[in-house]
Please model this.
Amino acid sequence: MTRAAGWWLRLHGPEYNLAATLDSGQAFRWKQMAGGWEGVVGRRWVRLEPREDGGVDARTAEDPGDGAWLREYLGWEDDVEAIHRAFPTGDACLREAVAACRGLHLLRQDPWECLASFILSSTKQIVQIRRIVEELCVRYGEEVRAPGACGMVKAFPSALRLARLGEPELRACGMGFRARYLGATARRVASGAIDLAELRRQPLAEARRRLIELPGVGPKIADCVLLFSCGFREAFPVDVWILRVVRELYFEGREVRPREVEAFIESHFGPEGGYAQQYLFHWRRLRAGRVASAGGIRAGSGRDGV
DNA sequence: AGCCAGGCAGAGA
DNA sequence: TCTCTGCATGGC
Model:
């Protein structure tokens, strides 16, 4: 339906958790504003508001059509109850994590935006990744129609656009040594040396190999792209938070080697491991008070309290 | 003030 | 194959 200020779309479904989904380190551009979340999906500005019944109201600046693009992006059709049933039985730790962020969905993002964002993520805190990505968009993204005084926001800049920039222009966004990796990978994507849209149609191992060939992309970032944009739900990115939480929950806090942790992960979590990973990651960060949208449930000073 | 951050690449063993 | 180190920048 349409109104003077734009278009509305109503998504019906049980218990979709916008805060947990949009503020769990999968995507970096969503802003919580006046009880809703505002961001850009592809070339569309979107405002999402949670509904009492668990559904979501979406406001757009232009005709959203049937909204299939938004349902796709939000992972709306993912049957999370079935996914929970696929988790290892008897894993009480995982059940607690699921309970703490019920309604969290994995997103299906644009592969280029996801890849570029995670190249910028290495040894950066999420708050800082947000700032760098925002700066990159403000400087080099194309305008997208939006409500408000300004009337527009910026899309995520294309690979071609970034490929044509020099390293100093990228560094100006505050990304430091990652500028060389982002520029080099942008050139590989822009030249057609790799087809990101094709990855989802390849076997996971093959897609992963292709991604790791890119400058600045190793196993962790490859897994993020596979999980957050290609729909490979068995992909399991292992970062410092996952290392920490898996050691705490399954190794009594012992400083076991990453190799050993990865072997455990591979044998334990199964085909929906990617979802399990996201629950554990977000739950652990909630507990550490590192999630802005958590508001009232912040734990103490924000330092890690075991 | 000093440690750490959704890691990766290159060097050397 | 593995371990170690440098890398830019800024939050806490």
Notes: The longest strand of chain A covers residues 44-50. The beta strands of chain A are 2-3, 6-11, 31-33, 36-41, 44-50, 56-60, 143-145, 152-154.
